[in-house]
Amino acid sequence: MNYRYIPSGKAYLLYWLLLMFSCACNTYKKDTSVKLTAALEAAGINEAALNQVIAHYSQSPGDSLKLAAALFLVENMPGKGSMRYAATTNCGAFKQDLFVGDAIGIDSVNAIKKRIEDSLHCGPIKFVNPVFLADCRTISASMLIENIEYAFKAWQQPWAKKLSFEEFKEFILPNRMQNEPLQRWRKWCWDNSGWIFEKAGGSTDRIKIAGIVNDSLRKYYGYIHDNINYFPGTFTMKQLLATKGGRCEDLNMAVGYWLRAIGIPVSTEFTSYWANGNFGGHSWLAILDTTGKFVPMNAIYDKPVRDSLPFQDMRLAKAYRYRYHIDEGTVLKEGQYFQSYYDITKEYLPTSDYSMRVPKEQSGKIFLGVLNGKYWKPLQMQTTRNGDTLVFRNIASTAVYAPVVVQDGREENTQTIGTPFLLTEDRHIQYLVENKDSLIDISLDISSLSDERYKKKCMVVYWDNVKKDWLPAGIIRLLVDDPRKLREQKIKKMIVFSGVPANAIYRVINVEVPQHDKSYGRPYVYNEEMKTYNKY
To answer: SUPFAM superfamilies, from UniProt (predicted)?
Structure first.
């Protein structure tokens, strides 16, 4: 579905209605009718509910700002929604909701699940057949009006009053944080927010108040990703209360709802793939400070700290911020989830641009990838092309990259088409091309190795730029020292692997077990500036 439409048909009357109110309300743009028509057409039979909201705020010039807010929400609603999954067993549909109970916790939920599975003798309960529930097709007029009314109440809080209307629309007004199910949360949170004001003690510091909310909710929720890997969806607040935790998206929802309900401007940010991790990426919250800067915060776990990143040892290659607004001309596929976002890497980290020559035979899209899991994963980023030169914009330093293409439309299936390189802390590019004619010894700090390598037979594998895969090299070594104990005792002890190609990317694997995506550990590269092998 292309997002550019000409007013016609059922939307024609509404188009003229909006023109009548243009004198009283100049807060919507000239092309509002185009985006609005697209949204109403996407709503299908729910168009009447959206029209009802707009008509509600079109009755009085005094509601012109609320009308503009309603238009903003409706115009940019296509593509937003949640996925619903069907619970099933080998015997058919399973209609019971597993995620219920008064703060029973995920262990109890999983124990109940196991007990039900054992009693049914129908195999495991699975969540399959995802169906996209589009907001524009499912939201009620009363829910949308309630959201707008209480968002405006929040805007009057002393820490929110100075927000511009544009900031209010993006960071207070939206009724969702990411792709969680639709739910009424704003009025309930507002009505029950007295504890926040009491703990704030009269402070109007947005960052302090966000920290108070985060700390308080930590008593009730935690991160339980590994315990719910059978459930691919996102929880509701009610389900989250039962499980007492969820994934980062679930925790963002819980904290984000409370913050927006009281007028703390907050957005969701994310990275698709960590630069130095094997477990995908992460999403977090960011508070818009009065300085105009965003202060990132891990929901539940960390207080927001100005001019600081809350990721401990994890490193970003790219960071993005979600936004509710959809750019004019965006092409949306009907019935498919879409979330607008933009690159914010430069706000948080030193960055550089990287240029490469495009191979003549390459016609598809080229990405920069990072090693996340066994192979390279593609990062979305701005690029510019001039002839056969492609420039990747704003990549973070202290990471290993490689130009890649995605095969079969699957991000987990990539192939390198250029030379991997290290972008050093000082933002110098160091190319990594293995030299098989020069076999060397490499000396690695044992404390940096995975704890799982202890008492295992270990071998180095290196990235072969011709084979485009990991190949074994050198001799097998038994790791007799415990990496964890060396870290605890702050002892530096080295292990040497002999007979490996120079200038390569290296990994240390356990040769006693079959390898999988997460078992490869992190790569080591000789940093020419630091004159040492570092883990990335």
So the answer is: Cysteine proteinases (SSF54001)
For residue 42, the surrounding DSSP H or E stretch is helix 32-43
Instruction: For residue 2, give the 3-state DSSP assignment.
Output: strand
Q: Would you state the structure tokens that stand for residue 262, as one six-digit string?
A: 């009281």
Q: Are 514 and 268 in contact (CB under 8 A)?
A: no
How far apart are alpha carbons 130 and 127 in whole angstroms?
A: 8
- One-letter amino acid at 392 equals F
| Sheet of 457-464, strand order | 469-478, 457-464, 506-510, 524-527, 532-535
The torsion angles phi and psi of 441, rounded to 5 degrees, stand at -100, 135
Distance CA 460, CA 472 (A): 6
Q: Look at residues 174, 498, 483 and name the one whose alpha carbon lies nearest to residue 324.
A: 174
Name the percent of the chain in helix, strand, coil, to the closest 5.
30, 30, 40
Alpha carbons within 13 angstroms on the beta-carbon side of residue 323 total 16
Q: What DSSP element (H or E) covers 402?
A: strand 399-407
Query: What is the torsional sign of CA 383, 292, 174, 281?
Result: positive
pLDDT single digits (tens) 399-417: 999 999 999 888 989 999 9
**Selection from 223, 221, 219, 297 nearest residue 259 by Cα:** 297
Residue 376: half-sphere exposure toward Cβ, Cα within 13 Å: 30
Residue 471 has phi, psi (to 5 degrees) of -125, 145
15, 219, 285 from 177: Cα distances, Å: 30, 21, 9
The whole-number pLDDT of residue 32 equals 52
User: How many angstroms separate the CA atoms of 391 and 178, rounded?
Assistant: 31
pLDDT(294) > 60: yes
**Whether 372 contacts 271, CB under 8 Å:** no
Comparing CA positions, the residue from 248, 252, 338 lying closest to residue 287 is 252
Q: Write the single-letter amino acid at 436.
A: K
**Annotation: CATH topology of 34-80+129-322:** C8orf32 fold (3.10.620)
Q: What is the C-alpha separation between 70 and 141, in angstroms, rounded?
A: 11
Q: For the chain, give every domain's residue range.
A: 34-80+129-322, 350-431, 435-535
Please give the DSSP secondary-structure letter assigned to residue 44.
Answer: G
Half-sphere exposure of residue 59: CA atoms within 13 angstroms, side-chain side: 6
pTM of the model: 0.90
Nearest to 242 by CA among 95, 125, 88, 98: 98
Q: Give the residue carrying structure tokens 């292990």.
A: 495
Is there a contact between 274 and 281 (Cβ–Cβ < 8 Å)?
yes
User: Whats the size of the chain, residue-wise?
Assistant: 536
Percent of the chain past pLDDT 70, that is, above it, reads 94
Q: Taking the CA atoms of the chain, what radius of gyration do you get in angstroms? A: 26
